[in-house]
Design brief:
single chain, 52 residues, 73% helix
Length: 52
Amino acid sequence: MSLLTSLFRRAERKKVFADLIKYDDHLLRDIGLTRSDVALMRAGRSAFRAHE
């Protein structure tokens, strides 16, 4: 993977997490997430393992 591709993907992930954290709890729940799920994913851990 090229450096440019890597930088683009990182920027895209940051934008997604920033957008997700703006959602209210109800909307996050509607898509099957919680604020802690978003925090876990941002830290590089799977949110799905947290629910097991």
